[in-house]
Specification:
alpha/beta; Rossmann fold; two-stranded antiparallel sheet; globular; 321 residues
């Protein structure tokens, strides 16, 4: 492993250790959130209420030394509540821009599927181009701008399905489930004293360990992770197989190919390797693709799931040697 990747490994270990001061368990979710950040992409966190989705993003922003903003999505939220608006200043006789919470580095779109599609679409330009257009003027966002959106499962009351165009802009869908018994016991024990996760975070028990410039450097260091041509072809074949599978109505597009490549590279770095293996691709296939694919109704009625189909596709595509 070259020197740059060794530094990247040390930084990742330090970041994870700091996050664990607050987040109990959920190691896979922490790693996938870091993978999305390393790749310069966005992530969708899904799980039942109260499992720490919001807390994870707040902690990650603190550890990465980045500005943080939170938007609570509700049915009456308007696009201007997210992006901001121009307000007329009577004293100056001119319009002044009042920036919305989207002007930050780490944006938490909390319970994003409680708002209708019109409001959700206000994030599309920012997620794709890291710019915001208000009254025909385009404003730049931070180069490290990252959206972490939390959502409750769609069968929960008062939720709306995300538009397909928006789901495709999220690199990963990260499931966050209930903790194991020993982890929940540790959480309960902390609540008896003054070391609950929220108290630890609010009392500055978690410190920034990298700067914004170092985040950019970490992303650049990913380019040193080797992807062999046959591994690149394997990634493309997996995505193309999703478009041809008989049970899938809509398969992965070119953005899914890019996401799987970036995710596999970041996963290799998280695993302290300077090269990508087929196992990295398999590990990232589900979080990258599960929210992008749509089953045909007749197969969905039979009880087939996207996870089942992805498992079969990964078994069918030849693994490069």
């Amino acid at each position: 492993m070259n020197e740059r990747l060794e530094i990247l490994k040390q930084r990742l270990d330090t970041i994870r250790a700091e996050i664990r001061k607050v987040i109990i368990g959920q190691d896979d979710a922490v790693d996938q959130a870091l993978i999305a950040t390393l790749a310069g992409q966005h992530a969708l966190l899904e799980g039942p209420p109260g499992v720490g989705k919001t807390l994870l993003v707040r902690t990650l922003a603190r550890v990465l030394g980045s500005p943080f903003a939170r938007i609570q999505f509700t049915p009456d939220l308007m696009p201007a509540d997210i992006t901001g608006t121009s307000v007329f200043n009577l004293q100056r006789s001119e319009f002044t821009l009042v920036k919305g919470p989207i002007f930050t580095t780490f944006l938490l779109a909390d319970e994003i599927n409680r708002a209708p599609a019109k409001t959700q679409s206000a994030l599309l330009q920012a997620m794709q181009e890291r710019t915001v257009t208000i009254d025909r003027d385009t404003h730049e966002l931070s180069p490290n701008f990252t959206v972490f959106a939390t959502q409750n499962p769609i069968e929960y009351e008062g939720t709306y399905p995300l538009p397909e165009a928006q789901k495709d802009r999220f690199m990963l869908k990260v499931p966050i489930g209930y903790p194991e018994r020993d982890q929940e016991l540790e959480l309960a024990s902390r609540m008896l004293g003054d070391h609950s996760p929220e108290q630890t975070l609010n009392a500055d028990g978690v410190q920034p360990v990298v700067s914004g410039e170092e985040i950019f450097s970490m992303r650049t260091d990913l380019q040193n992770v080797l992807v062999r041509p046959e591994l690149l072809a394997y990634i493309v074949d997996v995505i193309r197989k999703t478009r041809a599978h008989e049970s899938i109505l809509i398969g992965g597009g070119p953005r899914a190919t890019q996401a799987l490549l970036l995710g596999s590279r970041a996963h290799a770095a998280i695993q302290s390797r300077d090269f990508v293996t087929p196992d990295d691709v398999k590990a990232m296939a589900h979080p990258v693709l599960v929210h992008r694919l749509i089953l045909r109704p007749e197969y969905e009625i039979e009880g087939l799931t996207i996870a089942d189909v992805l498992t079969k596709i990964l078994q069918d595509v030849p693994i490069p040697r």
